[in-house]
Structure formats: structure tokens, C-alpha cells
Amino acid sequence: MFSRLEFFCALGFVTLTGVLFSINLNYHSRTAAQQFETLTQDGVDVLNARMQTYLLVIKGAAAFVAASDDVSASDFATYTERLDLVNQLPSITGIGLVVEVPNDRAASFAQKMRTEVDPSFNFRRLSQEDTHFVIKYMEPAHQNTKAIGLDLTFDQERAEVVRQSRDTGSPRLTPPIVLIQAEASRNGAALFMPIHAATSAGGDDGTFVGWISAAFVVNDILSGLTSALEQSYYLKAYDGRSSENGSTFYESDRDGAAQSKFTKTLQIEYFGRTWTLEFSSTPQFEAELRTYRPLSILIAGLLLTATLLNILRNIRRRTETLDEISKLKSRQIEEREQENRSIIENDVTSVFLLDASDRVLFANKAAQQCFGRTAKDMFLVDFASIAQNAQPLDASYNAKGWATSGRELELDLHRNEWVSGGGEKRSTVIIRDLTSQNTAQRELNQSKKLFDMALQGSQIGVFDIDLKTGKSEVSDTWCRIMGYETGCNNIDTQKRFIERVHHNDIAVLEQAKSDCILGKTDRSIAEYRLKTKDGGWCWMRSDAVVSERDAQGNALRLIGTQTDVTELRHNRNALTNSEGPPADAGGIICRNVIPDTA
Fold first, then answer.
1. CA-to-CA distance for 42 and 266, rounded, in angstroms?
2. What is the 3-state secondary structure (H, E, C) of 384-411?
3. Strand partners, 247
């Protein structure tokens, strides 16, 4: 028969085993679900990055067209050739310029295209609409000949997307379509960006010019999102807010018809359209996460319970005779463990053991070395003569100490009070010597202060851009050059800077930056006009280098300087024109000067 103690112990261990089994099983399930969630999020992040890349490409093309009075076919071909679409964006089948052609001007437009571009030019699928949306150019031309001259109003759904882009002034994406230049079996889509020519020095939207169109194959965008696709999860994509109301335009290859254990459905908005993505786990993913740990815990718990019952049965016979000895030994062990935990013998951290009157009972080797005293010299010495609490203004330490050499020490002091087995009060004090560390930090702060003063005296602003996040850190001098008297690191400096660059100079600045990031040039050097805080303009010069790249050679950080060269620019122009500098030229901190158009 079992005793009451044995019965309740067995019941407790069985219950504990069941709880641990349940917790481990639930934990494993949550971990697997979290891993699947991470995989799906990685795929969505890659897709978002790809779509944003396409948006940046057509924005750049739109800016190129808007900045030009008349873009010829060769100009457009040269620009798109530099984008290197085949290698950089292989999923894009072409980038084109779409223009509005009224019906009464269709013949003259066709004749102009035959004269300037292609003698064999003809409209394709010309509709009966009063105004046609015609693809004027499409690059690379050799693989988009079927698209040039296509009237997009032949398809009402496609034409409506183009109108929405024009009316809203924002990019718009078509539903899945059959691209004229792609295979009919492959779903495609087109992204349209409206173009407005600048009509004022401030860059306000002016005359509507047309659209930049980027056509791409959807399968190329969604396939290969991550290495886990088709290995750890399947992907099915719908154009619409649900699988019931949307049309399927992509589905990865699926092995077998077994139901997936983990699924995830996401709705993503892309340029006026909603895509529904359905992720489902693969048998390979589920097999990799299969574990026998919960079962092992259950078996081990039952075996342990059986062993415990056998041990209790043997101990029960000896309990009465060993009770007093056990209590005595327990008190001795408890006191010894408390002393051992409070006294840490090492050569790095100083440890003191104090009595109720704060007299030193023990000091380890590190304490002896730190304060230059032997254990005998410190025995029963008042601890206040060795170290005391302090509160410096910079909060770099919380106590001061004194070595026998007279050197004052800056300390990190922590005290722990406890009671011995005999009821006596004890204190354990643990100390770290921060003197050398704090001295080095102060010297570093002084060096930084001198460096900042040097930058301020030479009026050179320093910036550091994280190319992955787009965020930047700038020096106080950079802020003053930009017209911020109280600093500007609490604002989005990169955004504010770009907003104030003259729109005619943005391309020069971005080209210099892009060439440096891509490794075409060692430095990014550019001169450009910058709007001052009071609305005027000044000339600035940026000189930057890539300071960090990853293992693949991708640029991670860009660091450089910014200098006001307004006076130098005007003096240069004056020398060129054999004239003296303008009366209002000069000024180091972005004075309100007339923009130099040279």
C-alpha cells in the first residue's frame, strides 16, 4: 500500500508531467506557426520591395520626360538603356511612353511617327473613342515592337485604369491582362504613372504630358520571392479582396492534394488594386518541424514518477531516525550556501563582506588589488574610510573610493543585506572600478567636442545616410547651413533636404549619388541649388563616399560633407564673364541669393 505522502507525490508528478507535456506541445505549435508567419512575411517584404522598385523606375522615367521639352525616341531609348532592365529588372518586359491622341489628330500623329521614328508605323487596335491612349515609345524596342502604336482604349478596363491615373495624379495598376508582347499563357499587368511638365521654378505640376507605362509578367514577380517558396510554402494569388470574389493570376507548383497544416491569407494594396495572397505550408516544412519532445517528456515523467515512488518507500523507513540530523545539516548547508553566494572570490570584481556596523569582515583579492591594501589591513576597518556613495552630475558612477596611494577612484557600488543562520546582520558589497573607463570616455567626449568646433569654424556640414533605411544623421554645422539654429536631428533631414533641392538639379544630384553607390565612381560630387529657409536660393556642393558595403558589394552607408559654395559660384561666373561678382553674392550660410542658371 502507498502512504498518503507517496500518493500525493505521485499525483503531483503525474499532473506536472501532463502540464509540461501540454506546455511543450503548445509551445512547439506556436513556434511552428511563428516560423511560418516569418516565412510568409519575408515573401511579402520581398514583393513589396519589388513593387516599390518598379514605382521608382517609372517615377524616374516620368521625371525624365517632365524635365525635357520634347523627348525623342533616341532620348527615351538611351534613358531606358541605362536602367539595364534585362539584368536589373528582368520581370519588366518594357517601359513605354503613352500619350493622348485626339481622334482628329490621329492621322498627323501617325505621319509624324513615320517620319521621326518608323516609316512602317501604324496604330494597333485603334478604338472608336474620341481620344486614344497610344503607346508612343516602348523599350527595349526589339522585344516590344507589337506594343508600339497600341491604342489602350481598345480595352475598357485598361483604359479606365489609365484615366484614373491621369485624374488622380498617382500611379495605377491594371488587373491581370494579356500583354501583347508576352506569351498569351502568362498573366501580365501594367503600371501607369502620369507625367506633368513643371511650369514654375518651384516645380508645381503643370501641363499633362502623358504616362510612363511599365509592363511586367506577374509570374516573374511572384515566383522565387524567397528560397522557401515551394520548399516550405505554396503561394496562390488573387486579384481582388478574397478568393471567392477575385480571379487567380498566380499559383505555385504544389505536390499532392494533402491539406496544409498552416495557412495565411493577406490582402495587399498596390497602386489602386487589392491582391489577396494565400500561403500554405508544404509537407517538407511540416516534416522538418515534427518533434518527439512532448512524447519524450511524457515518458520521462512517468518513469521519474515510478522511480520517485520507489525512493519514497525506502526513505519512509528511515525518516524518524534521520529527522534531527537532517534539520541540523539543512541549517548548516543553508548558512554555508548563503556565505558562499555572497563571497565571490575573483581577480576582477571587488567583493566585501561587512558586519552589522559596516566593518570589513572579508575582502577578496580584487578588492585588495583595487584599493592597494592587504586583507589584514582592511579587517574590521570602517567601510566608509574605503568607499562612500556619491552622485556626480554626469551619473557616470555612484560611489567614490580611495586607494592607499591617495588616488581617488570612481566606483559602481552595489550592496546586498542578509541575515546569517545565527540571526546576525550581514552586508555584501560588490564594486567595479570605473575610473579608467570614465577617464577614457571624457577624453573621447573632449575629442568629439574639438572635432565639432573644427567643423563649425570651417563651415562644413557632415552627413551620414543609412542606405537601407533612408535615414540620416547630420552634424550641428550641417543644421546651421540648412538654416536650423537649434539643431535638426529630430526631423527627417533627408526628406527636408530633397524637398529643398531645385527640381532641375535633382537629377544631377541623384545621378552622382547613384554612380557612387553602384561603384561607377569613387566619390559622389555634385553642385546644386538649395532653397533657403527664407525662400531664396544658394549653391551647395556635396562630396560623399560609400563608407560600408555588404558581402555582395551592395552599398550600406554613404558619408560625406556639404559646403555652401554660393560665393565661389558667383565669383567663377563673374570671372568667366569678365565681370565683378554680384552685389549680393557671398555669405557662407545659404544667403537669399538669385539662382545661378549657368
1. 13
2. HHCEEECCCCCCCCCEEEECCCCCEEEE
3. 239
Query: pLDDT per residue over 478-530, tens digit each?
Result: 888 888 776 676 788 888 888 899 999 999 999 999 999 999 999 999 999 99
The whole-number average pLDDT for the span 169-197 is 82
pLDDT at 202 over 50: no
Q: Where are the domains of the chain?
A: 1-315, 343-440, 459-576
Cα angle for residues 191, 124, 146 (degrees, 5° grid): 65
Q: For residue 276, give every residue at least 6 positions away whose Cβ sits within 8 Å of its Cβ, in sequence order, or none.
A: 237, 238, 239, 240, 241, 242, 243, 246, 265, 266, 267, 268
CATH number for 343-440 (one of 3.40.190.10, 3.30.450.20, 2.60.120.280, 1.20.1250.20): it is 3.30.450.20
Question: Which has the closest alpha carbon to 305: 5, 25, 4, 12?
Answer: 12
Strand, coil or helix: 335: helix
240: which 3 cell numbers? 481582388
Q: Is the pLDDT of residue 123 over 60?
A: yes
Instruction: For residue 71, name the pLDDT band (cuts at 50, 70, 90).
Output: confident
Which homologous superfamily is 459-576 in? PAS domain (3.30.450.20)
- End-to-end Cα spacing for the chain: 106
Q: What's CA 376's distance to the chain center, in Å?
A: 58
What CATH number labels 1-315? Answer: 3.30.450.350
Is 459-576 the same fold as 1-315? yes
For residue 464, give the amino acid letter: D
> How would DSSP label each residue in 45-81?
HHHHHHHHHHHHHHHHHHHHHHTSSS--HHHHHHHHH
Where does residue 469 fall: left (phi above 0), alpha (psi -120 to 50 degrees), or beta otherwise? alpha
pLDDT in tens, 426-478: 999 999 988 888 888 888 777 767 776 766 666 788 888 998 888 888 888 88
Distance CA(484)–CA(461), nearest Å, equals 12
Are 222 and 176 a contacting pair, CB within 8 Å? no
- DSSP-derived letter for residue 361 is E
Supply the DSSP string of 305-316, one letter for each residue. Answer: HHHHHHHHHHHH
Query: What local confidence, expressed as pLDDT, does residue 413 receive?
Result: 93
**3-state DSSP call for residue 490?**
coil
Task: Tell whether the model's pLDDT for residue 566 goes beyond 50.
Answer: yes
Across residues 196-204, what is the average pLDDT? Answer: 57
525 beta partners? 543
Cell numbers for 534, please give them. 527664407
Confidence band (pLDDT; 50, 70, 90) for 173? very high
